[in-house]
Design a protein that fits this description.
The chain contains 9 helices and 16 strands. It is an alpha/beta fold and about 325 residues long. The strands form 4 sheets. It has a 6-stranded parallel beta sheet with strand order 2-1-5-6-7-8, sandwiched between helices. It has a 6-stranded parallel beta sheet with strand order 10-9-13-14-15-16, with helices on both faces. Strands 3-4 form a two-stranded antiparallel sheet. Strand 13, helix 7 and strand 14 form a beta-alpha-beta unit. Helix 1 packs across helix 9 and helix 5 packs across helix 6. The protein is elongated. The N and C termini lie close together (about 10 Å). The structure holds ribose-5-phosphate (R5P). The site of ribose-5-phosphate has 13 residues, from strand 13 and helix 7.
Amino acid sequence: MVVVSGSNARPMAGQLAAELGWAHHSIETRRFPDTEGYIRIPDEMIDSIREQPVVLVSNTFPDSGIIETLLMLEAINDVRKGNLANLREIGPQELADVGPGILLAIPYFGYSRQDKRFRPGEAVSARAIANLLASRCDGIIVFDLHAPQVLEGLSVPVAYTSAMPELAKHLQESVNPDFILSPDKGAIERASEVANEIQCQFSYLEKTRIDAHTIVHKAKDLDVEGKIVAIVDDMIATGGTICRAADALRSQGATEVHAACSHGLFTGGAVARLIRYVDGVHATSSLKNPQDVIPGGPALARGVNELFEVLNWN
Ligand code: R5P
């Protein structure tokens, strides 16, 4: 088995390959002067992609990641089908079709927050992208997806995997929190899993988003006086959600506040803003970010193993 990656998820692909004890190869990626992308599977990778199942690790973020993922899947499919005909007539032009054997592992699924049609006429973006990718692989592994329901009924099996066990272990070892807080109802399941692993208290806030930059947190009575609290969410983007939650915690007497998430998007100077509100910021390497301290490889490996069982590839 082999792990391959393009330009946007190499660290996670490396962690996955190390976890599974498989080889990891990089697909060639470049950009033309007009910004369009180019990908090519190097000659020396062709045999390994044809001889065994392949796991492509790639993000659908930023937008260029969607195109790159699609192009890499297209090229892997062609190589496995034996469609190698090329204008320069390099190498064999055609080989036998080696059949199914392509999994796509998506550490960060861009557009996951547009998982519903909130107003008439909107695209359900997450669904549109998932359908496109599912048409070119045999199974998808998604890592801490914002709202898993959006991938229900896809044409290929989906393994939903999560780094919450590793996030809990990391927090316990580095912060030793007394209290875990979910900043809104959407993160309750994830955050309560972390609280259960650590065996500490748990609660959540009621969040109302006014717009992309304005959030109101309804403060409820939290028993956080003199306590170390870790706020756990699936992603941190502008940091607004965490900053407001940290304010609510400080006003109720928390002595130390940490923020932990799977996906560190950290848009528009978020880390600089966050460190004025919290004592520590902890993320995985699903996206390239300066707070990458939680390993994501083990969770991806659990997803890959699950799909190998479902597809009977063992
Ligand atoms: C929303 O429901 C998500 O789980 C996150 O809480 C949110 O996307 C974080 O965004 P920001 O950091 O911009 O507040």
